[in-house]
What we know:
The complex is a heterodimer. Chain A is mainly alpha-helical. In chain A, about 75% of the residues lie in helices and about 5% in strands. Chain B has one domain (about 10-240).
Amino acid sequence: xxxxxxxxxxxxxxxxxxxxxxxxxxxVYGIVRLINFAHGDIYMIGAFIGxxxxxxxxxxxxxxxxxxxxxASLLGVIIxxxxxxxxxxxxxxxxxxxxxxxxxxIEYSMIWAFSPQPRAYPDLLANYQLQLAGLIITAQQLxxxxxxxxxxxxxxxxxxxxKSGKAMxxxxxxxxxxxLMGINVNSVISFTFAIGSALAGAxxxxxxxxxxxxxxxxxxxxxxxxxxAAVLGGIGIIPGAMVGGIIxxxxxxxxxxxxxxxxxxxxxxxxxxxxxxxxxxxLLGKRSVExx
Amino acid sequence: xxxxxxxxxxxEKMERQLIWGAFVVLLYLLIIGLKALGIIDQxxxxxxxxxxIYVILGVSLNLINGFTGQFSIGHAGFMxxxxxxxxxxxVKFGLPFALALLMGGLVAALAGMLIGLPTLRLRxxxxxxxxxxxxxxxxxxxxxxxxxxxxxxxxxxxxTNFTWVYVIAVLTVVIIRNWVQSAHGRACxxxxxxxxAASAMGINTxxxxxxAFSVGAAFAGIxxxxxxxxxxxxxxxxxxxxxxxxxxxxxxxxxLGSISGSVIAAILLTGLSMLLANWPYPRLIIYSLTLIGIxxxxxxxxxxxxxxxxxISFIKKKGEERxxxxx
Lengths: 292, 327
């Protein structure tokens, strides 16, 4: 039982990172119906920005976090403008292929520039442990969970209470009608990419601190798993991404704790295939029927 | 008079087949000749074999992605199934090589059917992710399967040679080309163009999607078995997402829905990776820029949906007369 709870605790902090990445996927999908394959790589870039700002510029944690988020969101907007915007009215498969291309471009440019070798991340957070009824909780886990929750609350406020959030919701509901109401669809889409990418950048830094190592291909698996999390919760639905991320993180910890860590990656996709078969709209999604 | 009693269009078709047949045989003889003369060395031969394997993979993925309009990015998964089961057939059971190829293809087709039946209800990008996930699951399964060496890999004797690959690549092109032009193939194209309309026309869309998926998987499996018996060692990491994307690039570059496009693109890209063998990362950067560039500037790929025909003809076209006769 203790072992089980311990894995749940480990899973919670991992899951909150997945949730942060999944939020970007779900927001972008909700607005332009695109699986942004490059999202996992933006997360990787966030981790690298964090690495350089702390190693080279010797900044502390919070400025590094802000810089990572800013650079990641800039990258997200640039990608959207250069690669996705020309294809906004193309078939969705074309945009999906482009997204795969962008993802590979970022990964292999980074490998080319910085070698594929993993790098050790600097210790940015105090590393002490809390013992609670036989369970070990590290300060880093609490920190990650805390920052993730703050960012998610911020996002919730942004989407529900501000004018840009209202515009975002309107565009995701009906892009053409929103444009007719005088909403600048292009800037709303850029804004969505900026916010989603900033969250991914933050997740990258947090994971770098947590696992202590980063490499240019680190974004592939978390990116895919976060996508699965977004689908699990119901793609396009913001609370769904949070729920899905937490479930994915916990499921993964339990599998690597009780079965074998080699099955860790398979469990995500098994969940995906099951959810797509049983409830393709996700846990919180509503059914929609295709009309001719 | 005997020749003239055959209708003109049949004659033209026979002529086309004859020219293509001659071209294929001559190309084979040319390569074998150059090999015998020592102009084509072992390194180039390896790449020719690889090009042939990519032709099979590209054409078979084109059947799924290009002709049936389903978006699969897990082709390496089927390839790995064929590679492992083909290798099990020769190494563990001592079966002859031809049977091993058959077994690789059959098991992959079966897997394609098992995966296809539930997942093909999904559309577009969901299907893409499901196939990607399937490819990853297969990889993890082989990674944990000690019977075939797990992560260490599985040593396989070299039984494939250039002739095998060449013959099977040609057969793949011929079979898939004929299939696409048959009633079944047209049903697949109808599914691609408009699934709802196709189903209203009485086409069993699920059936045709599953058939296309299984046939594509079968050829990927055969390609995998050929690959396994050429490169001595197979390991789960040789069949990762990168391999699926390479095949996808071939299909997209050649043109979704063009078999000759896939053949040309497979040869082009293998040549490119041969030239850039010492710069693996710039190669992948070029690949990704190609993918983005094609989608933005030339979404049809090199060939669009067209096929190439050899520009040689012995028979004078009597187009005008035929049109008059028909009216």
